[in-house]
């Protein structure tokens, strides 16, 4: 990309002042239109349908290259369904090589309209002070502070003079502060941050400066196969793991993450959920942009609107995998359901009614077209109940019906290839009978493993039985959550859960649910047995 220069007038530094106000009339603060007493019925009807639009106000710098800053904030918020208005604190001239020029603007007199405010580049202590004054005058619903100091290309975006103002004035007002390790280190007087334990200490020290939550982002940590961030809410540290996507297109990840957090908060999410969705969004965007090329510099932007190009991977279906969903895993079998005269769809409905927490369609003998139709119907049922739906073996069917994921075994497509095809937003389970297979599943980017057969089974031909000791070996070695499978029924499920094995989250069952007359009743009984066993162990 050719070097882009910003207009020189915009680059001329000037002091922030209330008289140089960037006043805008703030039409966004009152989403409902109040009809006048004389309003006609038609106008009243319009008012009754008015829908509040989640609103993020970004207070940040403009990036002429449009990968980061205000431009990234607007794209990220829009991608998550929030409206993003902006206050430009600085103008930068950037491209994929680096930052060529910068100059401050001001934030004087801006009325926030009670939005969720996200801050980015605040180039001088003066601007931070003006911002803080305004935040005191016009309280906001939530304040997300991305303490931008150095661009990913290594260029300084806000000088050391801002550090004290960040710490003393801005952070105490923040709902969350999101430094990367370099910024966390600078904020804490250049402490060395090399390990996760260092990141935890940093999160705690920054928390003491006054924000309600801290997220220290570990994307820049060396020698890590995962991108691990540390979230701290004053009580608990939570390590949020994501896939490290190999790509040069990482420009703007910090701005995007913070804007996504603000957008999710605007939609009513809790802070932890907002952070989780934001992290997943960035991971997915990087994944789908990893091979895009724009410009010849070392660092490119990524595509915030990737889901427009890839309708099968819509943001709406990004499922944050919850290992507790493995508690009661219902795995269908077309032969069994046919035998009892029910459709796949009715079988799934009944399993959910009985309390299944995750469903897998394992249809070995169903024709592709019939399978896909059934899968689409099951996706609808599962989504409306909040139960994830996975497809056994068939990645093509999973993509076509936009399922939440896929389960594969050792002779199916390798999990890393499945990950390539599905992207990071989908759930992948892998069958593992040995610790080595469990290790490989983790390296391949799986989310969970299924391990069995715990007991002999007639549902899967020639399936070796592991017994409790085999299951114990896999669970102990696994870095992923495990669901036990094979010959499990209401008579023995309790004994499996009472083993109290590490990482064992639940049981997966075929015949004990679907080779029975009433699927809902059997699922209900199994669920109550599992709950009793868990409360005993
Ligand atoms: C939860 C769960 N665990 C294991 C399996 C078995 O998968 P696989 O080894 O690929 O065998 P098939 O099911 O394809 O016959 C599973 N399906 N689900
Ligand atoms: C599909 C499957 N996978 C197994 C494994 O050991 O990986 S055992 C199995 C069949 C499980 O059926 P049932 O609950 O009827 O025994
Ligand atoms: Mg298989």
UniProtKB/TrEMBL annotation:
Keywords of the record: ATP-binding, Chloroplast, Kinase, Magnesium, Metal-binding, Multifunctional enzyme, Nucleotide-binding, Plastid, Thiamine biosynthesis, Transferase, Transit peptide
One of the GO BP terms on file: thiamine diphosphate biosynthetic process
GO molecular function: ATP binding; hydroxymethylpyrimidine kinase activity; metal ion binding; phosphomethylpyrimidine kinase activity; thiamine-phosphate diphosphorylase activity
Cofactor or coenzyme needed: Mg(2+)
Entries under Pfam families matching the protein: Phos_pyr_kin (PF08543), TMP-TENI (PF02581)
InterPro entries registered for this protein in UniProt: Aldolase_TIM, HMP/HMP-P_kinase_dom, PM/HMP-P_kinase-1, Ribokinase-like, ThiamineP_synth_sf, ThiamineP_synth_TenI, TMP_synthase
Enzymatic reactions: 2-(2-carboxy-4-methylthiazol-5-yl)ethyl phosphate + 4-amino-2-methyl-5-(diphosphooxymethyl)pyrimidine + 2 H(+) = thiamine phosphate + CO2 + diphosphate; 4-methyl-5-(2-phosphooxyethyl)-thiazole + 4-amino-2-methyl-5-(diphosphooxymethyl)pyrimidine + H(+) = thiamine phosphate + diphosphate; 2-[(2R,5Z)-2-carboxy-4-methylthiazol-5(2H)-ylidene]ethyl phosphate + 4-amino-2-methyl-5-(diphosphooxymethyl)pyrimidine + 2 H(+) = thiamine phosphate + CO2 + diphosphate; 4-amino-5-hydroxymethyl-2-methylpyrimidine + ATP = 4-amino-2-methyl-5-(phosphooxymethyl)pyrimidine + ADP + H(+)
Main subcellular localisation: plastid
Domain Pyridoxamine kinase/Phosphomethylpyrimidine kinase intervals: 63-298
Any one GO CC term of the record: chloroplast
Domain Thiamine phosphate synthase/TenI, residue spans: 328-513
Pathway in which this enzyme or protein is active: Cofactor biosynthesis; thiamine diphosphate biosynthesis; thiamine phosphate from 4-amino-2-methyl-5-diphosphomethylpyrimidine and 4-methyl-5-(2-phosphoethyl)-thiazole: step 1/1; Cofactor biosynthesis; thiamine diphosphate biosynthesis; 4-amino-2-methyl-5-diphosphomethylpyrimidine from 5-amino-1-(5-phospho-D-ribosyl)imidazole: step 2/3
Cellular localization per UniProt: Plastid, Chloroplast
PANTHER family: HYDROXYMETHYLPYRIMIDINE_PHOSPHOMETHYLPYRIMIDINE KINASE THI20-RELATED, PHOSPHOMETHYLPYRIMIDINE KINASE
Family membership noted in the UniProt record: Belongs to the thiamine-phosphate synthase family.
HAMAP family in the record: TMP_synthase (MF_00097)
Function recorded in the entry: Essential for thiamine biosynthesis. Bifunctional enzyme that catalyzes the phosphorylation of hydroxymethylpyrimidine phosphate (HMP-P) to HMP-PP and condenses 4-methyl-5-(beta-hydroxyethyl)thiazole monophosphate (THZ-P) and 2-methyl-4-amino-5-hydroxymethyl pyrimidine pyrophosphate (HMP-PP) to form thiamine monophosphate (TMP).
Listed name of the protein: Thiamine biosynthetic bifunctional enzyme, chloroplastic
Organism: Panicum miliaceum (Proso millet)
């Amino acid at each position: 990309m050719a070097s882009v220069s910003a207009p020189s007038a915009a680059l001329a530094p000037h002091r922030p002042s209330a008289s140089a106000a960037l006043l805008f009339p703030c039409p966004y603060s009152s989403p409902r239109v109040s009809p006048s007493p004389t309003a006609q019925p038609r106008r009243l009807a319009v008012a009754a349908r008015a829908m509040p639009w989640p609103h993020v106000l970004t207070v940040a710098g403009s990036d002429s290259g449009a990968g980061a800053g205000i431009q990234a904030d607007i794209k990220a918020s829009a991608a998550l369904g929030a409206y993003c208005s902006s206050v430009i604190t600085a103008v930068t001239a950037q491209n994929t090589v680096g930052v060529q020029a910068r100059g401050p603007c001001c934030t004087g007199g801006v009325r926030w309209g009670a939005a969720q405010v996200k801050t980015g580049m605040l180039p001088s202590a003066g601007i931070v002070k003006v911002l803080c004054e305004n935040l005191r005058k016009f309280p906001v619903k939530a304040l997300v502070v991305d303490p931008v100091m150095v661009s990913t290309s290594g260029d300084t975006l806000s000088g050391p003079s801002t550090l004290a103002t960040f710490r003393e004035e801005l952070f105490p007002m923040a709902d969350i502060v999101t430094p990367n390790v370099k910024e966390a280190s600078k904020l804490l007087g250049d402490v060395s941050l090399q390990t996760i334990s260092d990141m935890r200490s940093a999160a705690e020290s920054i928390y003491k400066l006054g924000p309600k939550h801290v997220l220290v982002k570990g994307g820049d940590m060396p020698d890590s196969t995962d991108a691990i961030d540390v979230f701290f809410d004053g009580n608990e540290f939570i390590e949020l793991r994501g896939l490290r996507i190999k790509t040069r297109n990482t420009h703007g990840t910090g701005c995007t993450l913070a804007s996504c957090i603000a957008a999710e908060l605007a939609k009513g999410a809790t802070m932890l959920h907002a952070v989780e969705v934001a992290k997943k969004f960035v991971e997915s965007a990087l994944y789908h942009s990893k091979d895009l090329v724009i410009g010849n510099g070392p660092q490119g932007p990524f595509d915030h609107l990737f889901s427009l190009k890839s309708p099968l991977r819509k943001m709406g279906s990004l499922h944050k995998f919850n290992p507790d969903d493995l508690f009661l895993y219902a795995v269908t079998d077309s032969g069994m359901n046919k035998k009892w005269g029910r459709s796949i769809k009715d079988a799934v409905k009944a399993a959910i009614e009985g309390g299944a927490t995750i469903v897998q369609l394992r249809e070995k003998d169903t024709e592709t077209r019939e399978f896909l139709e059934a899968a689409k119907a099951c996706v609808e049922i599962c989504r409306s109940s909040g139960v994830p739906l996975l497809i056994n073996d068939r990645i093509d069917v999973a993509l076509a019906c936009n399922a939440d994921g896929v389960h594969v075994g050792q002779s199916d497509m390798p999990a890393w290839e499945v990950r390539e095809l599905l992207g990071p937003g989908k759930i992948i389970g892998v069958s593992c009978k040995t610790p080595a297979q469990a290790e490989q599943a983790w390296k391949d980017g799986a989310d969970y493993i299924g391990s069995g057969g715990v007991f002999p089974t007639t549902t899967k031909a020639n399936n070796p039985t592991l017994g409790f000791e085999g299951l114990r070996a896999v669970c102990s070695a696994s870095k992923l959550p495990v669901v036990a499978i094979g010959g499990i029924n209401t008579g023995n499920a309790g004994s499996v859960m009472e083993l109290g094995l590490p990482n064992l989250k639940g049981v997966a069952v075929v015949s004990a649910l679907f080779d029975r007359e009433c699927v809902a009743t059997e699922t209900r009984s199994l669920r109550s047995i599992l709950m009793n066993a868990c409360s005993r162990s």
